[in-house]
Amino acid sequence: MKKVVALIALTAAISSGASQAAGVTLTIACGAVGQELELCKAGADRWAKSTGNTVKVFESPNLTNDRLGLYQQQLAAKSSDIDVYQMDVVWPGQLGQHFVDLKGKVPDSLVKSNFPSIVANNTVNGKLVALPWYTDGGLLFYRTDLLKKYGYSKAPTTWAELASMAKKIQDGEQKTNKAFAGFVFQGKDYEGLTCDALEWIKSSGGGTLIDNTGKITINNPNAAKALDTAASWIKSISPAGVTTYDEEAARGIFQAGNAAFMRNWPYAYKLGESADSKVKGKIAVAPLPKGAGGQNTATLGGWQLGVSQYSKHQAEAIALVTYLASPAEQKIRAIEGSYAPTIPSLYKDAAVLKAVPPFGSLYSSLTNAVARPSGPTGAKYNQVSQAFSGAVHDVLTGKTKGQAAVSSLATTLARIKGAGW
Amino acid sequence: MTKITAGPPATAPVRRRGIESARARQAVWLLLPTLIAIAIVAGFPLYRTIYYSLFDANLTSPDQAKFVGLHNFWFTTEDGIGIGFLQDPKWWGAVKNTLLFTVVSVALETVLGMIIALVVNSAFKGRAFMRTAMLVPWAIPTVVSAQMWAYMYNDSFGLIGRGVLGGQALLADNSTAIWALIAVDVWKTTSFMALLILAGLQSLPSDMYEAADMDGASKWTQYWRLTLPLLRPALLVALVFRSLDALRVFDVMYVMLGPNNAAQTSMTGYARLALIDNSLLGVGSAVAVAIFLIIMVIVVAYVTAFRVRFD
Q1: Where do the ABC transmembrane type-1 domain residues begin and end (chain B) (predicted)?
Q2: Residue of A267, A40, A248 whose CA lies nearest to B258
Q3: I want to staple A83 with a disulfide (CB 3.0 to 4.6 A). Which of A187, A311, A324, B99 is the partner?
Q4: ipTM of this predicted complex?
C-alpha cells in the first residue's frame, strides 16, 4: 500500500514539474574528445545540484563512427539506459525517429535564439529531435612564433601558400627536431577525413560530393585535382603517419610543438592555450586556405542534445537538455573549452571574446560552414561518407590517383544510391 | 569383461542395460540445462542471423524487414550494379587478409610457443616465476594491448615508429599494417600457445626419456621421435583453438586501424561495418553467415585431415 502511495506521489511530482521531482537519476551520453567529458560532467552537475536530481555521465568512444554504432544498438533495442544523447550534426536524419519531439516542450525563445540553419538541420519531418549544443567548423591553427622566425607576416590564404610555408618551416625545424611536421590534419579513414576532404574539394571549386537535390557531383576535375594536391602533402609537409591521425592525434603533435600548421575544430584552441601546453601563447587561428578559383570553406560540425523516446524520465531529461543548451551554459563552454556557441549573440559577448579572441574574427567562417551531404542522403549518409573517406584515403596513401578515385567513387555512390536515397 | 558376462546368464545383460540406460537418462537430465542455455544464447541468435540474412532490413527499424532471398549475397541490378557483398572487392580483400593473418600468426605462435614451453618445462631456478611472467601479455585485454602497440607504432612519438624505424608509419598502409598486426598478435598469444603445449609436455612420462637416454638417443632424436608424436593431440587441439580465434579476429584491427580500415583487413570488421556503421542488418547478417560457414569448413577440414580427437 505504502508503495502504491509513493508511486502515485512520485508520478504526481514528475508530472507537476521537473524541478520539484524528488531525485530521479538520469544518464547522459557525452563524448570524450578534449575537455568534452569534464565540461559535460560539470554542466550536468550544476543542473543536478539545482534540481535535486542525479546525473550520471556515460562516456562514449572518441571516434564519432564508434559512437554512432553504440547509439544505434542502444536505440534499436529501445533501451532506457541512456536518457540524453549527444548527437553529431549528421545524425538527426538517421536517428531522428528515436527521439522526443522537443517542439513545444522547450521554451520557444531558446529555439529561436539559435542559428536557424542548425535548428533546420535538427528538424526531421517537422519534428525538432535535438537542441543545438555547440557548433564546429574546420579551422587552420598555426604557430605565430615560427611564422615570424621564417619571415612570414600572416597566415596562408591558399593551399599552395600553405604548402610552401609549411615546407620552409619544416625544413628549417627538422635540423634540430627530426619529428617536426609542417602540416597535420585528420587523415585516418573515418568521418573526420570526410570533413577534411570536403573542405579541400569545396574550397577548390569541386562541389560538395552530392548536391542538395541528391545528384552525385564528385566526378569532376577540380575535385580530382584537390585530392591530388592533398596527396602531394604526404611525406613532403605531412608525415606519412598522418593517414592514421584523428583529431586528438593531430592535436597531440601540434600541442607538443611538433607541427607548424594544423587543421582542427575550435576545441583545440583552449587546450593549446592551457598551462601545460608547449605552444601556449604561440598559436593563432585562421580560416582554412582555398584553392585556385575556390572560396574558403569549413565543414560544418557540431553536436546536439536529444532526449531518447525510451527514457523513463522524459520530463527531467527535457529539463536537463534545456538547461545545457541555454545561453548561460553555452557561454561557460565557450569560455572554458572554446566550444563555438550556436547562439549568435554570444559571439559579441565580451567575456567570450576575451577568453577566445578568434571567435570574433572567425564568426563568419564558423557560421557559414558547409554541410556534409547528410540531408539529401538520409539514412544512407554513413555509407556515402565511408565510401568517400575510403576513396580519399586511397589517394592519400598513393594507391590511386585523384581522377581514378573520383570516377570510381561516383560508381560506388551510384551503387549505394540504388533506386534512390 | 567377458568373464563377468559369462557368469550369471540371461538376466545380467538386461540389468546392465538397465543401469546404462538409467545412467544415460541421468546424463541427459544433467545436460538438459546446458543444452537449453546453449539453445537460448547461441542457437537463437544464430537462427536470427540466418533469418535476417535473407531480408532487406535496417538496424534501426528491424520490424520493417523485406524478404529478398539471397540478394544480400549476390544480386545484380538491371543497371548492372552488383549489390551483393560477395561482389564487393573489399570483402575479398578482408578474406585474404584474415587468412594471411591466421596462417602466419598461428604458425609463428606455434613454433615460438613450443620453444618457450620446452624451456620452461626444464628444471631451473625461478621456473615458477617465469611461467607466471610469460602470461603477462596474454592477461592484458586485447583492446589495451592494441592501443599500446598503436602508440608504439606511431611515427611521430612511438618507440617503434620513431625509435626503431625512424619515422615510418606502418599502420598507414594496409599492406604493411597486416604485418604489424601479426607482430602484435604473436606477442600477445604466444604465451597462451606455450601454456597449452606446456600442459601437454607435463603429461609425458619422464621414465620414457630415461629409457631413451639409456639407449643412447640424442636429445634431438628424443624430441622428434618421442616428444613431438606424443604431443601431437595436445598440439592439434591448441592449433584448432588458435586458428578459430585468429579467423574471427576483430579487436586488434578495430583499435589499431579504425572502423573503415578494419573492414578491409578482417572479415568480422567487414561484418561490423555493414551491420553497425551502415545499419544494414540484412547484409551484415549475410556476412556473418558467410563467416560462420567459412570457419565451419576450415574446422571440419582440420579435424578430418589431422584426425583430431576431442575426447
Answers
A1: 95-304
A2: A248
A3: A311
A4: 0.75
A409 touches chain B (CB under 8 A): no
Best of B155, B254, B264 to substitute, by most chain A Cβ atoms within 10 angstroms, is: B155
Whether residues B129 and B269 share a domain: the answer is yes
pLDDT at A14 over 50: no
pLDDT score of A36 more than 50: yes
Please write the tens of the pLDDT for every residue from A274-284: 999 999 999 99
Residue A238: closest C-alpha in chain B: B156
CATH architecture assignment, domain A139-297+373-417: 3-Layer(aba) Sandwich (3.40)
Q: Looking at beta carbons, which residues of chain A come within 8 Å of B280?
A: 383
> CB within 8 A of B126, min separation 6: which ones?
none
- pTM attached to this predicted model: 0.82
CATH of the domain at B197: 1.10.3720.10
Q: Which one-letter amino acid corresponds to residue A43?
A: G
Contacts of A256 in chain B (CB under 8 A): 157
Interatomic CA distance for residues A388 and A133, integer angstroms:
27
Helices (H) and strands (E) in chain B, counts: 15, 2
Q: Which residue of chain B has the CA closest to A93? A: B60
Place of cell 557540431: A302
Cα(A415)–Cα(B228) distance, rounded to whole angstroms?
A: 54
Geometric angle at alpha carbon A64, from B255 and B53, rounded to 5°? 75
